[in-house]
Amino acid sequence: MSTSTVVDAVEGEQAAPARPGRSRRRAAHNVEASTHNRGPAWTAAGYAGMVLIVLVVAVPLFWILITSFKERGDIYVRPAQWWPTPATGANYSELTTRIPFFDYVRNSVIITSATSVAKIVLVFLVVIAALMVPNQITVISNYALVAQLGWRNTYQGIIIPLAGVAFGTFLMRNQFLNLPGEIIEAARLDGAGPMKLLWRVVMPMSWPTLVAFALITVVNEWNEYLWPFLMSDDETTAPLPVGLTFLQNNDGVTNWGPVMAGTVLAMLPILVLFLFLQRQMIKGLTAGAVKS
User: Fold this and answer.
1) Helix (H, G, I), strand (E, B) or coil at 254
2) What is the pLDDT of residue 120?
3) Phi and psi of 197, rounded to 5°?
4) Distance in angstroms (rounded) separating the CA atoms of residues 167 and 119
5) CA–CA separation, 172 vs 166, rounded Å?
């Protein structure tokens, strides 16, 4: 084999790895060009779709808000009034007088806090069974067990059956598996033990995912209705979603003003929490979606 043949073969082997990179750049350029060639019609259709989605979400919330400020007679008028005339705060006063509203808020805070903490800190092997059986199937057996223990109309009767969940365990486990192994190995070489490695290295890197899981858990527990409804008998343990049902009149026409006022007040804590933690939640839910 001549020298020129060897040189040509080596140069061919060295040039071969560059071809995939050029192919990817060419494909990306073609995608970008096709995106620009879609024209203003596609752009307008995209914006129209986003506006439609926003309206589907925002209009019911706006209707709840304005209804909470309407007088009772204005709620049922046809055509519907999209602005309260006159606006009144009597529904909020009636809300706190007809039912022990703040007792329900207290119960919701206690139940949500306890179940959220339990779901966040439970270990993998304890909650793995929760993934196998839907919660609705275990309602009857859980109810019978809680009743035998004498836990009906108690906080522990509501909290303990809701505390086990596998979603957060799998979410955090996948987050830990996606952490760079070099950083973990470097921390171990520096003498970091298991607990120091967890709290000083792993958890700071996993904070967005943990915040996302915590926020999802808090929202779910705050809105939990079925199990607290079965377990609670009065305002001593009933959470807010259960308490708001007592504003409905089963014998006649429901005055929806106080119901909407209670709904607005029930949404405010979750809305404020989401606005405060939305960046961390988005980072946690999109972690690993884009690779460099």
Assistant:
1) coil
2) 64
3) -65, -40
4) 9
5) 10
CB count within 10 Å of CB 52 equals 10
Upstream peptide bond of 79 is cis (omega within 30 degrees of 0): yes
Residue 157 half-sphere exposure toward CB, CA atoms < 13 A: 25
All domains in the chain, ordered by first residue: 95-285 (1.10.3720.10)
Q: How far apart are CA 151 and CA 159, in angstroms?
A: 10
Report H helices in the chain.
3-15, 18-36, 39-67, 72-75, 90-98, 101-121, 124-127, 139-148, 155-162, 167-177, 181-189, 194-197, 203-205, 207-222, 226-231, 240-244, 256-285
Residue pair 214/278 in contact (Cβ under 8 Å)? The answer is no
Tens of pLDDT, residues 4-47: 443 344 344 444 444 444 554 555 455 454 545 567 788 888 88
**Residue 269: strand, helix, or coil:** helix
Distance of alpha carbon 18 from its chain centroid, rounded?
A: 44
Say what the pTM is.
0.56
Contact 287, 178 (CB under 8 A): yes
Pick the residue with more confidence: 225 or 285?
225
Which pLDDT score, from 0 to 100, does residue 225 have?
87
153 three-state secondary structure: coil
CA 238 – CA 229 distance, rounded (Å) = 7
